Amino acid sequence: MSKNNNKSADELRRRAEVRLKEIKQKRGFSATPAELHRLVHELEVHQIELEMQNEELQQARSELEAYLGQYTDLYDFAPVGYFTLERDGMILQANLTGSHLLGVERSRLANRPFGLFISTEYRPLFNVFLEKVFKSEAKETCEVAIRKAGMEPLYVHIEARPFENGQQCRIAAVDISERKQAEEGLRESNKRYKELLEQTSDWVWEIDTEIKYTYTNPRIFEIMGYSSAAEIIGKTLFDFMKPEEAGRSRLFIEDIMQRQEIFALYKNTMLHPEGHPVFFETSGIPFFDEQGCLQGYRGISRDVTARKQAEAEAVRVEALQAIENERMRLARELHDEVGMILFALKLDLQLLCTMISDADIKLQERLQESINKVNDSIVKVRHKSAYLRPPALDVLGLIVVLKDMVEEMNQKTSMNTQLRVDPETPEFSPEVENTLYRCIQESLTNAARHAYARNLTVNLTWNLKKVTCRIRDDGVGFDTNDFNDYASNHLGLLGMKERVFLLKGTIEIKSSPGQGTDIKITIPLSKK
């Protein structure tokens, strides 16, 4: 037993002896030796009982102190900040976690307003919350931000309940900054996702199990020319298709939905309100409710109309290249084979004519007619060969051929045609020369036959990177909206476009009825 316990026992004995003496004096107590012996025995037993009770009390006190220590540890080091507040919001007590949350030593928190640590924008909310806590007997909650010097705001979830007859309240504060950051990150992610949906160049959609649209991003309005989502939402995919396309797509979509499978790059064609087809490559994925029941499909449709047109354009260009190659082959055959055969035939006829006697006038006349016909055929073959592929291009070059073409145009028509070129002789590839020749030839022919132009100018300029040809006339002009229509009368101009496209060049055509035509052709020059 400790020293303090010994002092307590001695003090208790002294007080007991004093009280016993007082009782004896008051009662005039006297006893026999036997009674005194019995009394001493009882006192000894009673003393032992008291000592045993004292030991139990000491053990209970030790256990209580241990429990108090554990409670203090739990209170101070709990992951939750605990505070006791007065009605006016003054801090009476705080655990270590609470002081850490506020960023102030616990010894310096007493009698300081809790609201002082709340971020300014959250103080009105906290004041209303605290007032509600003291008016209510139930637990109240709120979420506020704590301002800590030099640090980002710390978000906490607060639960409070009044006690001490409503004069004080206990607060439990939990750090929810990570949750807030996650929520903010989720909001930012949703915002970015929404912006992505709104700005993506693809059509993003959602359909229900009846294949009706329940969502569409704005891209569809640009692709299909609609003005609002009301023209899409509630309708099916098949409402925007031709009957045969709708039937094919219905079989595909219904089969996919029945199997609840993902699909990718399904090729479908929808009908633009203006009547022309719009080609898509469509991919979709099913989505389900919490019970696993199919709710519909979400997907993306990519507009591949431009690619389809480019593929068709490439086919036309390839065909044009094949035609050009065939023309070159025919030109060579006409010049080298047919021309030579006709020339040989002419020589044979002339030789035969010299061998006939002068008396046979009729036979001479017939031979001369044959020779004349052969001469005409030779001229025609030369012209046809030159039209297919001017041999002078390979011998004399583009500029000389163009000058001859302009001179011939001025002689055969009333149109004043001028060619303006740089004095320096260019060196173009055969492909570039042939394309320029054909485009200028087509332009001059159109201006003379269809535009009824009085004046036409060809400007040809070049540098190390590109060659530019500008052709302008003062003819009747035409509507350029028909330029891309293959059903129109401008197939020659479309052929020019395809020739230029073949060399990765550009062609600009400006014209309107009564305003003449201005054509600008630019062709890049490859490095040698």
Q: What is the fold's blueprint, element by element?
A:
Layout: H1 3-27, H2 33-77, E1 81-86, E2 91-94, H3 96-102, H4 123-135, E3 140-146, E4 154-163, E5 168-175, H5 177-199, E6 203-208, E7 213-216, H6 219-224, H7 243-259, E8 263-271, E9 277-288, E10 294-303, H8 305-355, H9 361-388, H10 391-395, H11 398-412, E11 416-421, H12 430-449, E12 455-462, E13 466-473, H13 491-502, E14 506-511, E15 517-524
Helix pairs in contact: 8-9, 8-13, 11-12, 12-13
What does this structure look like?
The chain has about 525 residues and is of the alpha+beta class. The chain contains 13 helices and 15 strands. The strands form three sheets. A five-stranded antiparallel sheet has the order 2-1-5-4-3, sandwiched between helices. A five-stranded antiparallel sheet has the order 7-6-10-9-8, with helices on both faces. A five-stranded mixed sheet has the order 11-12-13-15-14, covered by helices on one side. Helix 12 runs antiparallel to helix 13. The radius of gyration is 53 Å and the shape is rod-shaped.
Could you name the key traits of this structure?
five-stranded antiparallel β-sheet, alpha+beta, 528 residues, 15 strands, 13 helices, 51% helix, single chain
Overview in brief:
By secondary structure, the protein is an alpha+beta fold. It has helices at residues 3-27, 33-77, 96-102, 123-135, 177-199, 219-224, 243-259, 305-355, 361-388, 391-395, 398-412, 430-449, 491-502, and strands spanning 81-86, 91-94, 140-146, 154-163, 168-175, 203-208, 213-216, 263-271, 277-288, 294-303, 416-421, 455-462, 466-473, 506-511, 517-524. Helices cover 51% and strands 21% of the residues.
